[in-house]
């Protein structure tokens, strides 16, 4: 009922957040969900090494572990939210509820939402309500914040799906979410589609055909892309040697890792590190 603990949730105007985090343009990662909503300004935002142009009415949703950096031009305004994975746990019976929103898939492009014009004032008002509530001056302020944040997630999800044809069967989205979750949990140990197919109780051929239909990639490519992404994320840490990264990612040796990285990233790990520093 008091002021929410800062490690659970932070809501701020973007200009205030920028003033307190001046090194925000360097690539960095968070251990919490990170959300930015732009109402004015321009520039670019890079999430997991994929660059997006910043536009008013845009929301960026990031899951824990994603690497991102900003490059702004003009007066930037909007809102920032950091929220811990456990913030909703005291409120929701389903611990995985938040992950079901499409923008929290962990795929960069799916976490970028351009709101229709009619939805911008609605989401702006929701953030303003959170800024008032986060002061914690009234009873049940933390529970009200949980309601407001979940309400905003639902409003954004509805608005971003307007006019979108969703002919896919619901069980397809459940299977896709389960596959992605398994890859996230096991990509360092399990590298073969047949291993994931067994965990999902489907055949390897079905899993490959399903992934091609839903994502335009084979199951093997999705697993490989996740390994490559983690290698890139680890390479931003200059204190970690290439050999240590290869070991952490479960490669047999440093040279095998370097060959893998060059084949799929188009550059050596050393060159990649040099270009992002």
Describe this structure in words.
It contains ten helices and seven strands. By secondary structure, the chain is of the alpha+beta class. It has two domains: 152 residues, Jelly Rolls, CATH 2.60.120; 107 residues, Arc Repressor Mutant, subunit A, CATH 1.10.10.60. Strands 1, 2, 3, 4, 5, 6 and 7 form a seven-stranded antiparallel beta sheet that branches. Helix 2 packs antiparallel against helix 3, helix 5 crosses helix 6 and helix 8 packs across helix 9. The longest helix is centred in the middle third of the chain and has 20 residues. One of its GO terms (molecular function) is DNA-binding transcription factor activity. InterPro entries: AraC-bd, Homeodomain-like_sf, HTH-like, HTH_AraC, RmlC-like_jellyroll, Tscrpt_reg_AraC-type_HTH.
Distance between the first and last residues' Cα: 44 Å
CATH class of the largest domain: Mainly Beta
Helix content: 40-55%
**Strand percentage:** 15-25%
